[in-house]
Amino acid sequence: MDVTEPVTLKTLAGELGLNVSTVSRVINAEPGTEAKWASPATIRRIQELAHERGYARNPHAASLRTSRSDLVGVIVPRLQDYVLATIYEGIDAAAEASGRVTVVANSLDDPARQRLRTESLLARRVDGLIFGDAHQDSPYLDELAARGVPLTLVSRRRAGHVSVTCDDIAGGRLAATHLVSTGRRRFAVIAGARYASTTLDRVGGFLAVLAEHGIGESEVDLHYTGFDAPAGQRAIADILGTDTRPEAVFAVNDFAAIGAIGALQKRGISVPDDIAVVGYNDTPIAQAVNLTTVRSPMIEMGRLGFDKLLALIDKEAVDSERLTPEFVVRSTA
User: Fold this and answer.
1) What is the pLDDT at residue 61?
2) How many CB atoms neighbour CB 194 within 10 A?
3) Domain map of the chain by residue range?
4) Which of 207, 224, 199, 198 is closest to 322 using CA atoms?
5) Which fold would CATH assign to domain 168-295?
6) pLDDT tens-digit readout, 76-85
7) pLDDT of residue 57
């Protein structure tokens, strides 16, 4: 055989003395399912010759046969966000293990951009979508589901859609329980954005514990400034502008908490002696600055979000899942 000629299923079948259909089914079978089409000895012969001849499976041709592209689209607010980048690592690892490829796009947490980037991915024939930027007040996810698009959510949840999140209500409760146990009674919360379930659930769990200890929501200083370090700095400027200084600050994101700590220290306020600070997620930078925080299982969130999407693509029944958080005590509270 002229080695310069392209290696095809037909040429492999000719050398092996087998039907092209048999060779095709073995090579294009999902891993572990090859035995449906041939004996172990025949499968080994096919695979060894394909490897020896440098045969490469044509994913485009395979997608035409199966109506699947083996591509999964992932929409995140920003890949520079460590939390979503870590969740994406879990998604991508699960995709690689299943022989799929992920394509990621940034929405910048803007619903119009989310729609634009999603439609672009759908035009490229992705088999399904994973969203890390779900908004509570946006109908677009409902529209996609009505169109029959398989999708799952990670990090944030939304009613009516399969999601994998941290149990953020439980996480908020852990933060409040710890702070109350240290004797603190005056609180401020850097709450993130109102459209995100992470805000609603973490703040809701936090306030529920305070209420159980006789501290009403009207007595808590809530600031919806965002999830990053500048948001934490802005919140501290607002908090210290009031007549009553809190004894503790709970931020629903580590980066907002770190921004808050920097702003407090700049004003000569000691953490935790004057004001304690608790964050959320337990990112590496939280460990570096000894931030007391709530740990969320980010990698596992991504893996499970991908696995549930595959189940939906295969028309299986799937339930949402909330993963257990863990409270990590360090030096800031």
Assistant:
1) 52
2) 12
3) 9-57, 69-166+298-323, 168-295
4) 198
5) Rossmann fold (3.40.50)
6) 999 888 999 9
7) 63
